[in-house]
Write a structure and sequence with these properties.
- By secondary structure, the chain is α+β, with helices and mostly antiparallel strands.
- It has two domains: 102 residues, Jelly Rolls; 73 residues, Winged helix-like DNA-binding domain superfamily/Winged helix DNA-binding domain (Arc Repressor Mutant, subunit A).
- Helix content is 37%, strand content 25%.
- The chain is built from six helices and twelve strands.
- It has a four-stranded antiparallel sheet.
- α2 crosses α3, α4 crosses α5 and α5 packs across α6.
- The longest helix has 27 residues.
- The two termini are 21 Å apart.
Length: 228
């Protein structure tokens, strides 16, 4: 079942790192990378460390987050196949990573080291343009998230987040879409407390809009979640 994307601003398909390049060029760029099979719960980049590697997620899911001064994880993005992280690596003098990325399941990813990224950008300027477009798409999503804090209720934020995840990371079946996520993770992505997000999900489960199992949400009737 397709999710109603018109109700989810900021969750349209973002440009990809290899958009606009020929098949031959694509193969040349990927040939430079190290192709890795990564086990669950492995930290690929760590916030605050120098950006030395660029990653392109090929399969699986990962979380991109920052750790607060109180030691809590603030989820910034759910990473899915096609997402890139470590974009600061494209710069001549890379800044520190702004956040950390950790696999949630077994993943496959391409990794380019900083010297190789710099050479590739000079050879293929389209890569630099794509990286800028991706950065702007991420910035737009974060701006929409900040705006939602001021203009939308907790229930609306959870609904938009869940529908967005259904589009980007859901396992689609004839009866709906399943999203592998805990209440705590969904709350963090929606900027909603754990008690509140649990109450909202229980309400939706009673209405038949979703089904809930430990670590999974099954979206049955997405239209019932849209309240704006």
């Amino acid at each position: 079942m397709a999710m109603p994307t018109s109700a989810i601003p900021g969750e349209t398909l973002a440009p990809t790192l290899l958009s606009g390049v020929s098949d031959e060029t694509r193969e040349q760029i990927l040939a430079v990378a190290e192709y890795r099979r990564v086990p669950p719960k492995e930290v690929l980049i760590r916030g605050g460390e120098k950006a030395t590697n660029l990653f392109l997620l090929h399969s699986g899911t990962a979380k991109y987050y920052r750790v607060t001064s109180q030691g809590q994880e603030l989820l910034l993005r759910w990473l899915v196949p096609g997402d890139v992280f470590g974009l600061g690596t494209l710069l001549k003098h890379p800044p520190d990573y702004m956040g950390s990325a950790q696999t949630l399941e077994e993943c496959e990813a391409y990794r380019w080291a900083h010297p190789d990224v710099r050479k590739l950008v000079k050879m293929y300027p389209q890569l630099g343009e794509n990286a800028l477009r991706i950065s702007l798409a991420y910035l737009s999503a974060f701006a929409e998230r900040h705006s939602s804090l001021l203009n939308r209720s907790a229930e609306q934020r959870v609904a938009r987040c869940l529908l967005g995840l259904g589009n980007r990371a859901g396992h689609h079946y004839p009866g709906g879409a399943e999203v592998d996520i805990t209440n705590e993770q969904l709350g963090s992505l929606s900027d909603v407390g754990l008690f509140t997000v649990s109450r909202i999900l229980n309400k939706w489960e009673r209405s038949g809009a979703i089904g809930k199992l430990r670590g999974r949400v099954f979206i049955k009737v997405p239209e019932k979640l849209i309240t704006d």
